[in-house]
């Protein structure tokens, strides 16, 4: 049975897309060291990112943009990114397991939500790693365009440094305007 693990990265940040990944692992080609991406070092995530792409039977990375987040809300945008990731798989899974406590709308395959699944199910761990590495790389690329914001360091999360940069330099197009801290700054 093909089981696709699904997870996301980037629900909490104030800027950029929310990224989701779906992964179907090969039971005959196991990957050592899979875990919740947040419990791994950046170096380990980068190594596993490549290994997952080489060894998985199928994988897909998708996102919902900052504009879609503002239009839909973060939960619905996350579900949209997850659906896009599942739809992008080269193999049709018979079951989808998702990290969290809610099943994404729009996925027509049998789906189960698993709280803490990114630490307990290898398929979800692999998806967690693909999503986080992809989103972190997007923040590093955004940092190259807007170095004054420190995106490479805080990855867009609402840190003191990020708020200070927004206060000093303003809101950029990629900021999520529907998020209260960004909206408050825009209303000043």
Automatic annotation (TrEMBL):
Gene Ontology molecular function terms on file: manganese ion binding; RNA binding; RNA-DNA hybrid ribonuclease activity
InterPro entries reported for this sequence: RNase_HII, RNase_HII/HIII, RNase_HII/HIII_dom, RNaseH-like_sf, RNaseH_sf
Cofactor: Mg(2+); Mn(2+)
Enzyme Commission number(s) of this protein: 3.1.26.4
This protein's record includes keyword Manganese: yes
Annotated PROSITE patterns: RNASE_H_2 (PS51975)
RNase H type-2 domain mapped to chain residues: 1-188
Cofactor: record remark: Manganese or magnesium. Binds 1 divalent metal ion per monomer in the absence of substrate. May bind a second metal ion after substrate binding.
Annotated localization: Cytoplasm
Broad class of where this protein is predominantly found: cytoplasm
Catalysed transformations (reactions): Endonucleolytic cleavage to 5'-phosphomonoester
Keywords linked to the UniProt accession: Cytoplasm, Endonuclease, Hydrolase, Manganese, Metal-binding, Nuclease
Gene Ontology process terms (BP): DNA replication, removal of RNA primer; mismatch repair
Pfam family name, one: RNase_HII
Superkingdom of origin organism: Bacteria
Gene Ontology CC: cytoplasm; ribonuclease H2 complex
Residues where a divalent metal cation binds: 7-8, 99
Family (UniProt): Belongs to the RNase HII family.
UniProt-listed NCBIfam families: PRK00015.1-1, PRK00015.1-3, PRK00015.1-4
Entry function: Endonuclease that specifically degrades the RNA of RNA-DNA hybrids.
PANTHER family linked: RIBONUCLEASE H2 SUBUNIT A, RIBONUCLEASE HII
Protein's UniProt name: Ribonuclease HII
Species for this entry: Acinetobacter stercoris
